[in-house]
Amino acid sequence: MAQARLKYFGWGREGEGYTPEEEAFLLGIYREKFAVADFEERPVPGLDAITLRAPRLTPPAALAAICSTDLYDRAAHTFGKSYPDTVKGMLGDYTGAPDVVAYPRTEAEVAAVMDWAGGAQAALIPFGGGSSVCGGIEAKVDGTRYKAAVTLDLRELGRVVEIDRASRAANIEGGAYGPALEAQLKPHGLTLRHFPQSFDYSTLGGWIATRSGGHFASLYTHIDDFVENLRVVTPQGTLETRRLPGSGAGPSPDRMFIGSEGILGVITSAWMRLQDRPTFRAGGAIRFPSFFAAARAVRAISQAGLYPANCRILDPQEAANTGAGDGSAAIMVLGFESADHDLAAWHARALECVRDHGGTPESPGEADAHLKGAAGLWRNAFIRMPYARERIVPRAIINDTFETAITWDKFEVFHDRIKAAVEAAILRVTGRPGQITCRFTHIYPDGPAPYFSFHAIGRHGALLDQWQEIKNAAGDALMAEGGTITHHHAVGRDHRPWYDRQRPELFATALRAAKGALDPAGMLNPGVLIDP
Amino acid sequence: MAQARLKYFGWGREGEGYTPEEEAFLLGIYREKFAVADFEERPVPGLDAITLRAPRLTPPAALAAICSTDLYDRAAHTFGKSYPDTVKGMLGDYTGAPDVVAYPRTEAEVAAVMDWAGGAQAALIPFGGGSSVCGGIEAKVDGTRYKAAVTLDLRELGRVVEIDRASRAANIEGGAYGPALEAQLKPHGLTLRHFPQSFDYSTLGGWIATRSGGHFASLYTHIDDFVENLRVVTPQGTLETRRLPGSGAGPSPDRMFIGSEGILGVITSAWMRLQDRPTFRAGGAIRFPSFFAAARAVRAISQAGLYPANCRILDPQEAANTGAGDGSAAIMVLGFESADHDLAAWHARALECVRDHGGTPESPGEADAHLKGAAGLWRNAFIRMPYARERIVPRAIINDTFETAITWDKFEVFHDRIKAAVEAAILRVTGRPGQITCRFTHIYPDGPAPYFSFHAIGRHGALLDQWQEIKNAAGDALMAEGGTITHHHAVGRDHRPWYDRQRPELFATALRAAKGALDPAGMLNPGVLIDP
């Protein structure tokens, strides 16, 4: 690959990260927020300072060319990108490193690695771009029945294999990263338009396995609806679902694998529904006197059947934190897009809903308004945000996010109780007030997907415990108030305590049985979703 | 109930059926189509001419009040409404009658009947409105390990339990029939707007269990997308999924039960997403020079992101058969609806797509055009159509339908090959040419859901074999050409030979394991979807 390799610590590829200006802006916000003069900065170990145990298994000769036990490969596959992952990386705790990293180039090699790892009684951890923020790719096998752990990195399976222009669909390999996937579709005038925040460092297979939430704020929010079929390699063999625009033949086979987080099989390719590249746009930013006023406008728009591509709202503090506002108003970023028709009628009706609820458009009428003003500022901050974590953790700042969904009848009380629970936890844990903000990332006619961010000043030596206690408060509140533990960040290992309460026990029984049929040895991603 | 009871033979309730004028129109079409002077009419046995075996089990005293072994109850629950069902009814073949019919009034009674039937080693057949056209409700237990069959009729669980106006959702019991369900929503200004052809004689639980296709020709075509949560009684206990507008927490529990056709549990209630009652409408009928021209217009509209509520097309012969056309043109019935906004912009752009492909609107600009002309004629014929079967079977006319879905890249060749295969089968089986027509019932950006009807003159004494041979030709062609064996009529027992080829074997393995976990004795609807 001509690209730089992924960083073993932090977000993105080697050479990437916040600019000094971005870092100064970020730390300035925290200094002001918490009235601290400066932060005690701890060092992050360089790659050569990391020691890993000797690999507990050796790939067979036939697979040697696609397997690595190098320090870099193992270290770079030890963690996802969650807050505790970053703390553990800073602490140099690589006890969970996989023994071997495999880079299969074909579906047959995926199956071969699976066969070999299964025979060696190793756990197999499917790995897309490694952007999990919920412990989805950790090889935690110490003290278990697994003799070792093999990480299966799908990055070599990155091709768009076939395009069906008439049906606007493409057959794409599971390891295709966002940018490479879009680059291959662009010459055909097509786009998947699935842009999770992790777009640059996540893959199609990862999106499908985690029910990723993407570009579209309404209607097509999850990757789920774009899946036309799947090919999946399981320890019992390879299966392919029938490629169809719609079907009513029994429970959907695709839906069993969508969201299965690697515990049932490895998604090697999929036929995906695509979009024409949009040429018409309408929208812009809108100021609201309060977050709840903005939320009521969102509800009106989402129930009107207008289906905006973008309809995100930020509470006043969230807007200020990202430079999109001054803290005095909630901001809505509204956008319609189409490859087919002018959107004046859609936009005009949405603005009526906006005004009904006290909203004031920032720059009505400009076609590129989505790139300007508050909307543009927000968009840039959003894309760059994942680079912040590696800068704040060494300074003992605690900042994390969690996202959920709730029906409209419960939303306002829900919002206040979640905030209160997290605020109380931060005060209890850190001894000083923190901050929690909220935005909507996706909307439905029956409720929003609120996305919370929290900020606190932690203490070196206690960061993992402090973070966990705040996370526990958030998870407990989400469960108590009727939300979901995750709207689009998946379950992984970190969300298990709440997922286990959220999903019906009898569904777990059925899922466990299905897994037992496809993966009798329980080798695939043990600990994710259900116990192996 | 104040309503008349369901007919034991034929469609609907006692006292209902085709008028003499409708029957004359129907038979006139067949006389002309096949150049026959008249039909040999066989009698249908009256209820008192039917003999059933003695029930093989007796309900316990605690359930006696909600159980029946009466002739009527058992006869009226023997068959669905398929062509072979109707032939068997005419022949008086009630060997598959259930031993007992139970009418639980509460979820607890559903569980009690399940416990009792399980203890008695009986099969339990969930029954909604009995409108299955694929053998979904047959109690075929002769020669099996089941000692008897109990049909569980959910009709007493018909309430709308709770309404959440803010989220536009309602908690509805599984046995609610279409009209009763809508009548309870109407005072709140809400509607489920799920109008399958069977609307009058099918239930919410049945729609969910079979992935019913409904009112909306685009976007929300299947009931699946309207399910917010489910309550399901299984032999291992009752489960309820979390009510959420959206979630990414593992594989969707709802999606495992949606389409499970009664083999995993009995759906006793669901929170369903609703619509405001539409007040704005635009649309009407459009004439096209050919079916494929109309199909190309459908593709353009469906890929434009306009989401019409109605976008059905009829080929010229289908239009003629239903009185909606004269056989010289294909007809599109196009309709937009909204409770929120005027639809002029939506309709105008769709008409541009229509004209791009040679379509001529019948009556542009009339707001009630969907009730007039070809659109209105089609709509009335469509609703009344199920009453035809009980008139044609005694006259040895063979008429059945099958529906599928296919991606746009394959559609035209697919259409021609399916038609050719069925035409050849009819000629071979009946010795004279038949007729096969096509319409689209639902559309997707990546392909249509074509719905075929076929007509032939059969022979008394051979009807079941003749029908089966034609059905086999249709099913084999659907599989060979890449379609689905069912788009919204479900699998049941009749579609098993093709479903077994369509769904990946490893998915069947997983589904079988899931069923084994929830229904260890295999008592629920044996033979549907998978072998018990």
What would you say this structure looks like, in words?
2 copies of one chain form a homodimer. With 532 residues, chain A is α+β, with helices and mostly antiparallel strands. Chain A is 33% helix and 20% strand. The first copy, chain A, has helices at residues 20-34, 61-64, 71-76, 83-91, 107-119, 178-185, 204-209, 253-257, 291-304, 316-321, 344-356, 373-384, 389-392, 411-430, 463-480, 496-502, 505-518, and strands spanning 67-68, 100-102, 122-127, 148-153, 160-164, 169-173, 190-191, 227-234, 237-240, 266-273, 275-276, 280-288, 310-314, 330-338, 360-361, 397-403, 435-444, 447-457. Chain A has a 7-stranded antiparallel β-sheet, with helices on both faces. The first copy, chain A, is globular, with a radius of gyration of 23 Å. The interface between A and B is large, with 97 and 98 residues.
